Amino acid sequence: MTWRASCLLACCLSLGQAAQAAGIESGKDPVPSVMWSFYHKQMLGDAPFVFDERVKLLAPPFAEDARQVPVEIDARAFKGEVVRILAWAELNPLPKIVDFEPVSGVLPWLSVRIRVEQATPLRAAVLTRDGLWHVGSTLIDAAGGGCTAPSVVRTQPGWEEHIGEVLGGRYPRGDFSRLRLQVAHPMDNGMVSGIPEFFINHAELRDSNNQVMARLELFPAVSENPNLAFDIEGAGQTRLVLRDNSGNEFDASIP
Amino acid sequence: MRWMLLLFMSLSLPAMADLDYALKPRQIAEDTWLLEGSTDNFATANGGNIVNTAFIVTERGVVVIDTGPSKRYGEAMRRAIAAVTDKPVIEVLLTHHHPDHVLGNQAFTDVPIGALAGTTELLHQQGDAMAQNMYRLVGDWMRGTEVVLPTRTLTAGVQRFGNHDLQLLSLGGHTGADLAILDQKTGVLFAGDLVFYQRALTTPNSPGLSVWLADIATLQALPWTLIVPGHGPVASDPQPFEQMRDYLSWLDQLMRDGAAQGSDMAEMIRSPIPERFAGISLSRYELIRSVSHLYPRYERTQMKRVDSATQQ
Predict the structure, then answer these.
(1) What region holds the Ig-like SoxY domain (chain A) (predicted)?
(2) Domains of chain A (ranges plus CATH)?
(3) Cβ neighbourhood burial of B159 (10 Å; 0-12, 13-18, 19+)
(4) Measured between CB atoms, which of B264, B292, B300 is closest to A64?
(5) Confidence band, pLDDT 50/70/90 cuts, at residue B3
(6) How far apart are CA A149 and CA A147, in angstroms?
(7) Residue B280 C-alpha, separation from nearest chain A C-alpha, in angstroms
(8) Burial level of B307, CB count in 10 A (0-12/13-18/19+)?
(9) Residue A156, Cβ neighbours under 10 Å: how many?
(10) Cβ A168–B288 below 8 Å, yes or no?
């Protein structure tokens, strides 16, 4: 188990870190954060964790458009071991991004676009079968305002008619294929001019036998007209089933 | 209390005195002067002086082309002009609405400020947000800077300023409203930000790279003798056009290919940049920005409706 080696190394670097319940040294936080211990408690319930660069959290160094920041979470180093992936933006007013459960036939990889309110550390915590959280981190700079900017969707006449429309594509990439989806939805986060929360909060990816491939809880840090991409193994039609917090259900099939 | 004030002054005065653009006009053709900025990004070290501005001393007076990134720059430009000629400034021509080209307008409110109608509209919509971001990027250099909208609407055609006939072209590849100016007397082409040279082009308001490529062809076909890019060194050969064409075509193809392969934005911004663009300043930084501005249009062309509403 290579993480033990890296933990040992990290151990030497930061003896000051609090010892975990399981006696695991978490290593040094790779990003400057004032809120890690709070999120460790709130998101991970104070469970054992390591800062782990094998969890790649890839985002641009700065947010050109704070309402649409591309984020890629790559935990393929833990393929077959991943139970859940949680992602959040520490300094967002609504920090949670996604809770992703790759069940079967989906690689532990996800891309999504998010809103950021100010420059912030981003985190992706990957729970492996042994009960340890592996935390990937990055920093993003931003002029800010992404969470409180007026909706672009709502300025388009007739936007209500398009809710739930899904654009999609499947792109073969050697031994897996990339699945990309873009869903028309305002993803109102409740922070803009008296418009209450209205967002897609649940998504499921199913295979041609209707077996669940992945489950996702989505949160209002996800950008309007959400973009999602998955890497899936195997062929056959894939379904995406979506539900928003008003109970609307949407369904898409990608051949 | 008094000694604290003195201490404060002794600390802050040198810092204030440092904020000098030290603009040095360079004559590039008959009656024609250039204020060349660096090809860096906005920073507190350069006060946003990353832009080329210019002025033409006609018999009737001085025509100013773009006013720079701040009130302080506009004022410094005004002094630099006065050091070259006694003639009064008679008109400002703005090439487009981006902050580094128009936020010096405050120093020129005594003369007509001309721009394309689209430029005025865009500056009206985006000016305050752009100015705010400039404060964030370059800091105290911006002190007192406010958006001043153009006062005269320019249209395509030849306009006479004293002994200089200026051909105004209404183009749009960079922002949707881009003015290029060919001085028919000297052959100097003020390309605005339709031409970046040795500095990566920027795309926040571009209607599309194909529009921009068409504009490059239009400009190159003019009877120019010297090209003044919006950013980067002047040139008397067609190299800036060739570099623009090469770079725009590469960017376009990169995003087409990425969309066809289902690449996501976070992957696109990591794309390798060809060796031949190594000399172009800020290419990685601007690739990150351009992917954010333009890639959504490319990716949608490679996706189709897959929701159940379409299948019923």
Answers:
(1) 41-147
(2) 47-248 (2.60.40.2470)
(3) middle
(4) B292
(5) low
(6) 6
(7) 20
(8) buried
(9) 12
(10) no
Nearest to A71 among B266, B305, B306 (CB): B266
| Residue B77 scores a pLDDT above 90 | yes
Chain B contacts of A72, Cβ < 8 Å?
Answer: 264, 266-267
Q: Cβ atoms within 10 A of the Cβ of B239, count?
A: 13
Question: Is the Cβ pair B262, A170 closer than 8 Å?
Answer: yes
Angle, vertex CA A141, rays to CA A138 and CA A143, nearest 5 = 155
Are B91 and B168 in contact, with CB atoms under 8 Å apart?
no
Contacts of A179 in chain B (CB under 8 A): 262
Q: Do A164 and B260 touch (CB under 8 A)?
A: no
Helix (H, G, I), strand (E, B) or coil at B36: coil
Q: What is the pLDDT of residue A107?
A: 96
Of A72, A166, A255, nearest to B266 by CB-CB distance is: A72
Query: Would the pLDDT of B15 be above 70?
Result: no
Can you read off the two tokens belonging to residue B37? Answer: 């900025």
Whether chain A has a CB inside 8 Å of the CB on B271: the answer is: no
Write down the CATH number for the domain with range B11-239.
3.60.15.10
pLDDT, position A225: 95
- Say what the ipTM of the complex is: 0.86
A250 touches chain B (CB under 8 A): yes
- Domain map (residue ranges) of chain B: 11-239
Say which residue, B295 or A154, is predicted with more confidence: B295
Write the residue in B136, B262, B296 that is nearest to A178 by C-beta. B262
